[in-house]
Amino acid sequence: MAVLREEERVTPLELFFDLVFVLAITQCTALMAADPSWQGMGRGLVVLGVLWWCWVGYAWLTSVVDPEEGLVRIAIFASTAALLVAALCVPHVFNNTGLVFAVSYGIARYMQVVLLYLAGRDSPNLRHSVVTGLSGSTAVAIALLVVASQLDGAAQGACWVLALALDMAGPLFFGVEGWMLVPAHFAERHGLILLIAIGESIVAIGAGAHAEVDAGVITAAILGVVVAATLWWLYFDVVVIVATRKLARAPVGRVQNAMARDSYSFLHLPLVAGVILIALGMKKTLGDVDHHLQTVPAVALYGGAALYLLAHVAFRYRNLRTINKQRLVSAGLLLALIPLVVEMRALASVALLAAILVLLITYEAIRFADARDRIRHELAREPVAE
Q1: Do 354 and 301 touch, CB atoms closer than 8 A?
Q2: Looking at the DSSP assignment, which residues form a beta bridge with residue 345?
């Protein structure tokens, strides 16, 4: 199995695989929208987390093997099919499709485990990490999902949460010394999946607009695009450039792998979850722009935006050991406004959210104009590899 070269970018087959993850994200939004309660939102987020961890495994895998090489291509197609079946099960995963989800999800996960094991034939450290860490945590997670499919209520939810927690904790317990990655490829892959999540917020606008397309719906749709654009700007304008450079220049081995694990495998989950919650809030807003948002959709809209900003704060702190104060304050403001938002009309709540995010971006663009210009026009032209 060929190791990816440093200059290689995300391949068409990886993008093909990610298209299935688009459906999985959409299904998680639909799951929450069908049951706009605290339980429904919690269920949607835990399912998103489980599916995310499967996708993360393939992001690491394609830094070790060329996904378009030989039998690996066939294995990726098989994994895509298994993930598709799992995604189709999401709307009823807590009822009658739980077992099918667990089995198809398990196939997708263990396809990755087997490919990583085969790829490590010349790397004893990688094989050791796969055998002692990844295979064990994967088995425990799948077993818990199977058990959850036979339960209901609080016990079922507890099994799902435990499965996700133990699976994601695997790299913390077993270390990261044996793993391998291509920094530029790894960072780009995560950036693209975040872009897909932001695209889901656009899809949610269309899905929520069931009523006649009148002035209110048009205004809400435009404001929704403004919100999506600010989410894009907050990540892709500067953050992605700095983070990719930081990961590429980290010492190869444990330090670089730990940075990739924390910054991307872990901290990109709340970024994606925040966007999905915003999508949920937008979908409910477009359903009836003239009425007040219910508490859960309002929390999803503003809490999701706050979660997105807080993930940015944590992302920066992990990489640079500094705190982005303006994004931290903005997140706090959004959370503080939730009691007010539930008393506002849905259209006004989206307008206020858009205004806050636009003001944040405007402040950063003016306050850090010189640094932004240097990063975008000087740092971005430098080769990634040293």
Answers
A1: no
A2: 292
Please state, in angstroms and as integers, the Cα–Cα distance from residue 59 to each residue in 116, 185, 193, 264, following that order.
12, 9, 10, 10
Angle at CA of residue 197, ends 187 and 285, nearest 5°: 155
Asked whether the beta carbons of 235 and 311 are under 8 A apart, the reply is no
Q: How far is CA 14 from CA 9, 44, 157, 187, 261, in A?
A: 10, 25, 32, 14, 19
pLDDT digits (tens, 9 = 90+) for 186-229: 999 999 999 999 987 887 777 655 657 778 788 888 999 999 99
Question: What one-letter code names the amino acid at 79?
Answer: S
- Phi then psi dihedrals of residue 287, to 5 deg: -65, -30
Asked if residues 302 and 353 have their Cβ atoms less than 8 Å apart, the reply is yes
Tell me: the pLDDT tens digits for 239-282?
999 999 999 999 988 899 999 999 999 999 999 999 999 999 98
Please, how many CA atoms are within 13 Å of residue 40, restricted to the half-sphere of its CB? Answer: 19
Provide the pLDDT for residue 170.
Answer: 86
Give the DSSP letter of residue 122. Answer: G
Burial of 32 (0-12, 13-18, 19+ CB in 10 A): buried
Q: Which residues pair with 292 in a beta bridge?
A: 345
d(CA 346, CA 217): 11
Q: Which of 87, 135, 131, 132 is nearest to 109 (CA)?
A: 135
Quote the CA–CA distance of 23 and 187 in Å, as a whole number: 22
3-state secondary structure of 214: coil
Give me the amino acid identity at 262.
Answer: D
Sequence ranges of the chain with CATH classification 1.20.1410: 182-386
CA nearest to 220, candidates 303, 291, 307: 291
Is there a contact between 212 and 218 (Cβ–Cβ < 8 Å)? no
Backbone angles phi and psi of 292, in degrees to 5 = -75, 145
Count CB-CB contacts under 10 A for residue 343: 11
- CATH architecture type of domain 182-386: Up-down Bundle (1.20)
**CA atoms of 375 and 244, how far apart (whole Å):** 12
